[in-house]
Give the backbone structure.
Amino acid sequence: MFRYDRAVLDRYPAVHAGIVRASGLTNGPTPPELLQRYRTAQKEVAERLAATPPAGLPSIAAWRRAFAAFGAKPTQYRSAAEALLRRLAKQGDIPSINALVDLGNLVSIRYALPVAVVDLAGIDGDITVRFATGTERFTDLGAADPVAPEPGEVVFVDRAGVACARRWCWRQSAQSATREPTTDALVVVEGLHDGAERDVAAAREEIVALLGEFQPQATLAARALP
């Protein structure tokens, strides 16, 4: 259900992804034990950020270089992982949203890697990571009308040409965001830095473990890409 276009792999040969398909989920408010772990992780990561700011982390620096390479200013458009870490460093906490989002964010801040949790009910067919042509449609969270991505930026696109993520891991679409009714999701963790294969594999394993513990009724399937 998820693949990289050849042109993206040729331009970014260091990319590694961990994919988890989860079916039979029950989303909603984050259970107390998971919320406590999330808050503990936030505290631990915030302490590390006091010594090394997000921009100094190898995984974040690699995403900055990738964004710059397709024309997105790294200081204007930040990877989802950097945005979370910067918020944590500045404000000291990240608010709880729902069980699936919090689970993804917990793993994202711990490994400094972007983690997308995609509601498959809003996706038509497989997701391809490719360079945008400018004909795709993207609806931002809270927006009424879709816009077209800029040609050349990296996007997640479904079979219908709808972009479920812009600027690679900058922002997800309204259709792909997980909500309380979400029952079927694709969790994607990606890295581009030296050591990404190892770090992405560890993050994927933690996602599987957390889903297995807090969503025991769900059916899980995991794999590595490319």
